[in-house]
Every structure is written in C-alpha cells, then in structure tokens.
Amino acid sequence: VNWVTPLFSIGNKRRLEEDDMYQVLPDDASQGLGEELQRHWDKEVRMAAKELRMPKLTKAIVKCYGKHYAVLGIFSFTEVVKVIQPVFLGKLIQYFEKYDPNNMDALYEAFGYAAGVSLSTVALTVLQSLYFYHVLRTGMKIRVAMCHMIYKKALCLSSAAMGRTTTGQIVNLLSNDVNRFDEVTTNLHYLWIAPLQAVVVIILLWYEIGPSCLAGVAVLLFLMPLQTMFGKLFGSLRSKTAVLTDSRIRTMNEVVSGIRIIKMYAWEKPFSALVNEVRRKEISKIMSSSVLRGLNMASFFAASKIIVFITFAVYVLLGNTISASRVFVAVSLYGAIKLTVTLFFPLAIEKVFETIISIRRIKNFLLLDEIERPNMRFTLEEKKDASVEIKDLICYWDKVNILAGHISQLTCLPSHLPQSSLLSAILGELPHDKGVLRVKGQLTYASQQPWVFPGTIRSNILFGKELHPQKYEKVLRACALKRDMELLPDGDLTLIGDRGATLSGGQKARVNLARAVYQDADIYLLDDPLSAVDAEVGRHLFEQCICGILKNKPRILVTHQLQYLQAANQILVLKEGHVVARGTYSELQHSGVDFTSLLKRDEEEEPQTNNNHSVVKHAFSQNSISSHTSSMHSVKDGADQLPVSEESRSEGNIGASLYFKYLNAGASILVMLGTVLLSCPLPWDEAWEKRVMTDKSPSLCSGLTLASVIFGFVRSLLMFNVLVKAAQSLHNRMFISLLRTPVRFFDINPIGRILNRFSKDIGQLDSMLPITFVDFSQLILQNIGVVAVAAAVMPWILIPVVPLLIIFLFLRRYFLQTSRDVKRLESTTRSPVFSHLSSSLQGLWTIRAFRAEERFQNTFDTYQDLHTESWFLFLVTSRWFALRLDGICAAFVTVTAFGCLFLRDGLEAGAVGLVLSYAVTLLGNFQWTIRQSAEMENMMTSVERVVEYTELESEAPWETQKHPPPEWPSQGLITFDRVSFSYSSDGPVVLKDMKAMFRPKEKVGIVGRTGAGKSSLVSVLFRLAEPEGRIYIDGVLTSEIGLHDLRQKMSIIPQDPVLFTGTMRKNLDPFHQHTDEDLWNALQEVQLKSVVEELPNKMETVLAESGSNFSVGQRQLVCLARAVLRKNRIIIIDEATANVDPRTDELIQKTIRDKFRECTVLTIAHRLNTIIDSDRILVLGAGMIQEFDEPYVLLQNQESALYRTVQQMGKAEAASLLESAKQVNTDTASQPSTHILSTQLDVFSLINTLTIYSKEFGQKICIICYILFHHCHG
Predict the structure, then answer these.
(1) Residues in domain ABC transmembrane type-1 (predicted)?
(2) Do 925 and 779 touch, CB atoms closer than 8 A?
C-alpha cells in the first residue's frame, strides 16, 4: 500500500477533493461486478423454476464469490501464528528459569526461540494486513454488485410491484442492508477458525498445565453456544428493525417531497409525531440489540479474567506449584484465543444472522414482478406505417374496459380518468387481460406530471441523444423555451435542481414536452402537456409544436382544453373506461352524443377537413409569433435561479465539542460522570493478574475477579444505553430542525442528500459507532491498567513505552488528517447514488417509454464507481496505517526479545516473562486501541453530518407571544402594503413594491404568464420566506404572529396535489378534529364519496406511496376536501384545476362558489374560464401588478393585458369569455342592495386599513375616514 503515501502528504497540506481520488480499478467497476452476479442470479432463478423451489440468493453469491473468498482463508493462518507465539515465549522464559551462564547450547536455542517470537510477530503483521485487505475488498465487491442489481430491478418493476414496495424500502436496501456484506466478510472465516484455534490451544495447554486446563475450556464451551443464541436473537431483531427503518425512510421521503404542503397546512407537528413514533419503535428494537451487544462485549472483557482465574484456581487446588513460564504461556495462550473466541466468533454469528435477514429482504425485492416489454424493433416499412391498433381491449388495474379501433394521426382524448390509463396500456405500463393492442413504430411520451432530473436543461431535453444545433433550436422555439433560455444566467446549461426546483411549473411542462419532441420517434403520446401553461403559451405549443413540428407524425393527445379538438383528425371520447364516441369534430357534433355538451360550437372558424395538415392556421398564426418571443417576462415563479449547492463538507479535526454534543444528546452530565466512575476500576482490574501469580489467597482473587466482571457488565450496558439514546435524540433534533428550516433549503438540496443523512448516517449512529466507541473506551482504560501494572513491577519499562506512544500518536494524527477527509468524501459521494435512485423512481414511466434504462443504469454505475473510489481509498489508507503500527510493534518485540538475551545476566525469569508478554500484549493492545480511536474518529464524521443538520437556519417561530383573536380572521380582508419578495437574501426580487387590497368575501382571479410571480404571491401570504413590507389580514400584521397561527387560518388547494401514505382519514384530517360525518360530507361535496366507498376499507384504506393509486384529478379533489373541512375565511387556489377535465373543473368551481361563498378566495389560473366570473381579476407581469379590476371592465379596454390574452384563445372562446364576464357584471348591477353593501364594505375595508396607519399619520387619517364615511352614506 506504499503507492498511497503521496496522498497522505497532500492530505496533510490541504483538504482532499474528488479529483485527488484514484480511478476505480477495472475489477471493482460497478457494471462488471453487477452483471457477473446478475448472470449467476438469473441462472439460479431458472434452476429454481425447473426444480419447483424458491430461488436462493445466497447460492448465487456463493457461486460468484465463494471460491475466491474460501482461498482467502489461507491468510487467516495468522490465527495459528498467534497460538505458536506463546509457545516460543514459554521456551524463552524457561531458559531464564534454568539459567546457566556456561550452557551455550541452551543460549543458541534461546536465540532460536527469540527469532521465533520475532518472525511470528512479523508474519502476523503481513498476513493480517493481507487478510483484512482482501476480505474487505470482497465485501465491497458483493455490496457494489448487489446495489447494481437492486437499481436494475427498480427500473423494471411493474406497476403492481411498485405498490408492494416504496422508495423508503429501496433506499434502505441500498444504504443499510447491503452494508451487511462489508461486515460479514470480515468475520465469516472466524466461524471455523475459532473452534480450530480453541482445539489447538487446549492441546498446548494440556501439554503445559495438564487437566486443569479443562476448567478454563469449560467456560469457553459454555460461552460459545450462549453467543450463538445471541446471534439468532440479533437476526430476528434486525428483521424487525429493518421494516421500521423502511417505514421511517418512506415517511421521510414523503415529508421532504411534500414539504411545501406540510408547511402551508401547518402539519409539521403531526408528521413529527408520526416519524417520532416509528423511530421510537425502531429504537426499542435497536436498544434490545444493544443490550445483547453490551453483554457480548462485557463477556469478551470478562471471559479472559474468569478463564485464567478458574484455570489457576483448579491448578493450585490440585496441589501444583505455579511457575513463571507456566503462567505466562497459559495467559498468553488464552490471550491469543480471547479475541477470536469471545469477540470475533460471536460477532461472526451476529453478522451471519443479520446478513441472512438482509439477503432475504433483497431476494424478496428481486423476485417482484417485472414489466413485460414488447419487442420495439421495427423495419423501415413498419415505421413508415406507424400506428396504434386497439381492439376489444380489457385492462386491469381496476378492470377498465377500453374498446377502440385503429388510432393514428392526431387523436384527441377529452373527458375522464381512463385517458391516462389508455396511454399507460399503449406504453405497456398497464397489463391487458384480453383484446388486441398492437403498436407499430417507436413510441415517445410526455407525462402529465412533468418530470425533470437533476442536470442541465440541455441534458434534460437531449435525454441521451446527440446535439444537432438546428433541430435543437427548432424544438426550443416550438416549445416556447427560447425566451426562457435567454433569461436564464447560463442559458440551457443552467442546472436544474432536484425535482426541477429551479423551474416553474410551466417551464417544467415545456422541458418535458421538448424532450419528447426532440426524440426521433414514430408515435407521440402526449398526456395533457397544455394544462400547466397559460392560454397564450398553450396556443403556441399546440400550433407550433403539436400541429407544427410534429404534423407528419401520429400523435395521441390527452387534453382537457376543448378548444383544440377541432384540429384533431380523430376524437375519442372515453367515459368510465369505454369509448362512447369516435370520429372527427364535425361527425361528433352531428352524432347527438353527449360530447356536444362539452363543446361550444364555433361557426366562425373554417370547417375542418380530415387532412392532417390543414389545422386552423390563420386563427393562430399572428398570435403564435408574439407568444414565443414573450412566453415569459421573469425567469422563475418559484425559487429564482436556485443554485444546486454542493454538499457541505467539514474540514479539520473532530473537536472535543462534537464528542460532548454526541454524549450529551444521550445522557445528562451526571450520568456521564457515573459512567466515568464505573470505568475507573478497569485499570486496577489488571492488577489481579499479578495477584494470581504472587498471592496464594483464593478469596482475594475471586473477590477481584467477581468485582471486575460485575463492573464490566454494568459499564458496558450503561454505555450502550447512553449511545443509543444519543442516536435517538440526534435523529429527532435533526428532523425537527429540518421541519423548521425555510423551504429554500429543500430547493437547493437534492432529496437523496437529505435521505442519506437519515438512512446511512443515522444507521452508523445506531449500530456501528456504539460498538467502536465502547470498544475504544474499554481498551484505553485497559491499556492504562496494563502500563500501570508493568511500571509497578519494572519501572524502566516506561522508557520505551513513552517514545512509542509518542510515535503512535504522531502516526495517528498524520493518518487522520487524510483519512477523515476520505471518510467525508465517502459520505458525500454516497448522496448522488440515492438522489439518482429517487429521481429515477419518479420518472420511471418516462425512462421506460424512451428506452433509456441502460443509460440510467450506466449513470448509476458511474455514481457507484465514484463512491467505490472513496471507499476503496478509505480501505487502503486504513491498511497503510495498520501496517505501520504493526511494523513498529514487530520491531519493538524483536528488540525486546533479543535485548533480554543480551542482558541475560541478573534478570529474573518472572521479570523477563512479564516484559515479554507485555511487549506482545501491550503493543497488540496499543496498536488496536490507536486503530479503534482512528476508526471511531472516522465514524464521528456521521455524527458531524447529523449535528450539522440539527443546526440548520430556522424560519420564524411557529408560535409567538402575540396570538391573533380566536375568531380571526372574521372578515377576510387582505392588504398588501409595499410588499417586495425574494426567496433568499441574495436572490432576485420576484415581487416588487406590491400594493393591493382583497376585500372580504371577494373572489379574485390572478393571471399572468409563466414566471409572472403568481406562485410567489402564495409564498408571500404563507410566509414561506419573509417578505419586505407589510401584509395585514383583518388589521393584524402577519409578520408579528406565529407561522402556525397564520397558516392554519388560510386554506390552500395546491398546484401539485400531495397525498401521504396512511389512511384516507389521516390524509383529510391528521389532527382528528372532525367527526366521520364531517369527513363524508366533505367527500360528498367534492364528488369523491362514491370513489372512497368503493375502496376495500373505505375511509380506513391505506393509500399507496404519494397516493399513486388515485388519478391526479382525484388527488386534487382530496386537497379540495381538506379545504372544505378547514372552514377558513381565506382560500387560495393555485392552478388547482389544471389537471382535471372540464366537468370536474365545473364541479370544483361550483363547490368553491357554494361552500366558500362567505370566504375571500384568491384563484391562480391558467384557464381563464375558471376565473372569468370572479369579482375582480389581478393581472401580474414581471412581479408587478399590471392591472386589477372587474373582468368586464378589463375586457372593454382593448389595451388591457387580459383583453389581449383572451383574444389569443380564438374567436369562439373569446366571445364565450366576454359573455360570461358580461353576465357576472349584469348580475351584480341588477342587485343594487348587494352593490351598495359591497361599496360600503369597500369603504369599511379601506377605513379598517387606514386605521392601522393612524398612529403614523395622525389627524389627517381621521379626516379622510370621516369624509369617506359620509360619502358612503351620501
């Protein structure tokens, strides 16, 4: 490992970066390893199917790695060397017992034994280093191969299988379960070494001290089965813990994905309680495991004392006399097998049982159903005649019947839920029961919920295809992205954050569409790509993209935008899974089908022909030119150009303060002091060994032994208890800190990065760190005892010990400077693996539709290889350190052994024995302690990463001393006073100096192009970041009250509907504030009652992850039901009806009008027909108010932005909207009392607001109020 030395000199000068790591070795590359193990697994699955049995993953692993791993057993010959060493030692001491200065033969023989002691130490150093290097590397290879297979399987899961697993479970398999391979390979060989070594030692002891050795052996034979039983218990606890960990990580995944909703609903507390409850159950299992570990470790430290005590007690009772050589040989032989039999053997059993559980979990995952992929290779002839043919098709995720004929050219599917199911069937995602589904040609797909992956905008559009500049420009223009690219700082090379955090909803939709258009496919499946963009951009996309750039290709378009149906060559109307009508626009109009009620007849447009080129050109052309140049005025309607930050990585030493924070999280200072006091007996524990040799009092020896054992057990259990509690406390604090941090944090940190801390780092705190910590703390105290005893007998032994200790500590410091950085790199290079997995699972259908599985698998392998580079480097640096420590020890033992012979005159046999046995054991202990301390410090990087997340920046407090009145807000008057808003202190301003008032009970529609600041308005109201200026609700300044007081009093129906795993009841009412009757009534209001009644357990039905067993529209209705239940005075609707069909939209609008009649309602919309009947419409542009008035008034003004937008929707639609606005205006005018009331309310609202400022403006305000009041009555 000398090749790694230059890295240490770099590491001691500066912080290591990813570029400093060595490239992964070809033998360790993820792809090769994964494919090799996959071959063995596939073969095993085939064999199992032939033999009618369940396949065994263990068999595949053994066939793949068994031979190589078995050969490594040769290196474990080191354990035999350990047994031989005490024999040489005994012979050397015997020479001093029978010392005769004249006997030269005996002296030469003694020199031979000294050489034996020296060579066995050197052999031990070399063989042990080789053994650990190779077994750890084998463990790493199995882990990497297994991760490759898990990810590959995740890409192939069928929809049914996806329902049986969760993102949380897959992340847990990749973070914790596969780590068992690293742990088990290190210890597995001890299962046969330990018994073999025990047999050899018994024979040697019999030869040395006769039958009394059997007393000690009896203790060993009692311990081995006891520890085997412990191992089985570990296995069962591991399986229970793993299920709870899956559940916790799944909930964490949902919380991080839906954090905006959780914050706006003020649901942090129930989610905190949910996660804490799962964590509490998980910790109770971990605590049980830790009690077993504590007993195991205490028995390891106590076993040697009990064995030596019993052996010599029996030896003396049988009338034998103790001699120095006998004692030292016996103590050394027991010492040689102490580690193997009482630590490594039980550890091997524990790890084997834990690994069996992990293998079973991975196997169950690998046996889940895969999607059946039809062969998509077509001849040129077939490609020319690209089509989709469907006959008598019956599909089942809910036994949907879709009956159709031949689909080609531009087919539009208006209406209800089965449209997306039809596309799923064509894609092969929805398995079909009966009927024919034939696809001729290469498919491509744009999903309803836009999916983007972390990377540049360009890489998202190209999606693995080569860049052809002309074609690329054409696609950008067609998808109205040209202007966006000009406004973004890095153009199309701008990095997109996790879940597309840097883009607005409309931009994500257009990038999603551009990706499909750029692919050179034969058939295009477009699942409602127009719903997330405003009317003008939608018009542009339809003409320039769907009917422009794609005009010569078959396109199947699902849409709710009925104004585009005239351009379709064929229209399919689906209702409850059946095709109720089919034909051209004009055919359907004359067919008398219910279809016509969905559409408004447009006599003014030119009649359509069936030729797929003749789309209504003249109606669109002039508008589309303006639309793509001005598709957007400001870049982002969410988090303006958020940098996707690099993961933070600490530098320098792990300070004492971090150790204090860690221990203090698990125990008070008093408990810590108690633990230290309990540890104090350890040094004098060592004194009793000397007593056995010098004192003939059995009672004193037995008293010392008993006290030592009791103290050992209590101390071990107490320390484990403290450390597990610390892990629980830090996890809870990290989660609370995460819930309290502003939303921006989640926009700039990928989900995988956050999950990495909750899975891998917390996993380290739960299992590996406590073992290392306890081991190190006991070792260091033991060493103090050994040195104290040795120095008491022979003070000059301190002369070599002190410089050795200084050398060791210097080496440790030199090693840790680099090793800590490598360990931190290992932690940060793990995050992209989880982020990539999470992102892939979100876009699974798109990846499969584009046949991009192989490319995503290669990306995963690249991330794995990067992690392997850092992991392998950590393995090699650790071996570098161990080899140097062992080398120094070997040199010291050699010098001591030969030194005793050169200084043979005047040395007692006992003194020589003590010095030599201490030279061997003390140095063995010393270097093991130094290594464990280094290992512990490296593991403390996980604590460091967790503690970092417990200290995140916090948003404003959830509750403050100032509470609003209980019935607040009673009116629902909202006043914006010079409000400016930015998502971060250094980010661009997205709302500028906004002044507006929303009157009580007023219905306000908010429109504006993509990026105008509509969603930012929502963020301001909910204080997702703190605005400048003042916002008053019913006279209460919102910045002075707690966030929960504010957020609980407003309801939001969000743009992206979010459901959480759990029952339907929990999704509607997590606080249990409403009765069953209330819940059913709310579902009735939103037309979901019948749907929920059909679920197997009705309201108690547990939803799939993220509510994926509901359509997007249904999820939106659940969000509406939540708002109905909350009965708040202020309702914000954020493009909530973008993904639902017109009928459902109408339903929602009716519910809003009826249920929220007494509320102030702010509706952000892309579809103007949903807000044209509002009291007033607010038009936003570039973060400023362009106009704010009644719809009819705005539409009368031909200069207004609203008028221009309406005109771009086609003559028929514009006329219809104008008529609706006129109707609303007429209704209002015909109700004078209401009108007067609204005028009075207007004035009273104004007075209310002016009163707020009266302190600042004094008398003038009062005069204004007086005049206004009289004017109102006049």
Answers:
(1) 83-333, 703-938
(2) yes
- Determine the average pLDDT of the residues in 1155-1181: 82
Q: For residues 1007 and 995, give the distance between their C-alpha atoms in angstroms, rounded to a whole number.
A: 16
Cα-to-chain-centroid distance, residue 57: 26
- Cα 252 to Cα 275: distance, rounded to the nearest angstrom: 8
Task: Identify the three-state secondary structure at position 391.
Answer: strand
Checking if the pLDDT of 721 tops 70, the result is yes
d(CA 624, CA 631) in angstroms, rounded, equals 10
Q: Which residues contact 267 (CB under 8 A, 6 or more apart)?
A: 261, 1070
Determine the average pLDDT of the residues in 693-721: 70
Judge whether 718 and 670 are in contact, CB under 8 Å: no
The helix (H) or strand (E) run that includes residue 1135 is none
How does DSSP assign 492-540, residue by residue? GGPEE-GGGTTS-HHHHHHHHHHHHHHS--SEEEEESTTTTS-HHHHHH
Neighbours of 1253 (CB within 10 A): 14
Task: Kindly tell me if the per-residue pLDDT of 410 is higher than 50.
Answer: yes
Residue with tokens 């033992």: 893
pLDDT beyond 60 at 1108: yes
Taking residues 293-316, report their average pLDDT.
Answer: 77
Kindly report the length of the chain. Answer: 1274
Q: Nearest CA to 480 among 445, 529, 447, 444?
A: 529
Per the structure block, which two tokens stand in for 1159? Answer: 């509320």
Q: What is the 3 state secondary structure string of 1062-1102?
A: EEHHHHHCCCCCCCHHHHHHHHHHCCCHHHHHCCCCHHHCE
- Give the span between the Cα atoms of 548 and 923, in whole angstroms: 80
* 814 and 5 Cβ atoms separated by less than 8 Å: no
Residue 1113 CA to residue 641 CA, distance in Å, equals 30
Residue 1017 pLDDT greater than 70, yes or no: yes
Distance CA 10, CA 818 (A): 8
Residue of 715, 827, 712, 719 lying closest to 770 (CA atoms) = 719
| Secondary structure (3-state) at 264 | helix
Q: How far apart are CA 349 and CA 296, in angstroms?
A: 11
* Pairwise CA distance, residues 817 & 13, whole Å: 9
Q: What percent of the chain has pLDDT over 90?
A: 4
CA distance 313 to 689: 12
Under the banding of pLDDT at 50, 70 and 90, the label for residue 72 is confident
Query: In whole angstroms, what is the distance from residue 429 CA to residue 443 CA?
Result: 13
Of the two residues 512 and 1210, the one the predictor is more confident about is 512
* Residues contacting 1246, CB < 8 A, separation 6+: 997, 1268
Encode pLDDT of 346-362 as tens digits. Answer: 788 888 888 888 899 89
Q: What are the DSSP calls for 752-788, one per residue?
A: HHHHHIIIIIHHIIIIIHHHHHHHHHHHHHHHHHHHH
Phi, psi (deg, nearest 5) at residue 635: -65, -50
User: 3-state DSSP call for residue 454?
Assistant: coil
- Structure tokens that stand for 1095 in this block: 């679920």
Indicate whether 600 pLDDT > 70. no
pLDDT at 244: 86
Query: Can you tell me the distance from the alpha carbon of 1159 to that of 1236, in angstroms, rounded to the nearest whole number?
Result: 19
SS3 433: strand
Tokens 């504010």 -> residue: 1046
C-alpha to C-alpha distance for 920 and 890, rounded to whole angstroms: 9
Structure tokens at 224: 């081995």
pLDDT-above-70 percentage for the chain? 81
Sign of the dihedral defined by the CA atoms of residues 282, 288, 290, 293, in that order: negative
From first CA to last CA, the distance across the chain in angstroms is 96
Read off the tokens for 1258: 């004094």
Residue 619 has pLDDT above 50, yes or no: no
Residue type, 1199: E
Residue 692 has a pLDDT of: 47
Does residue 537 have a pLDDT over 60? yes
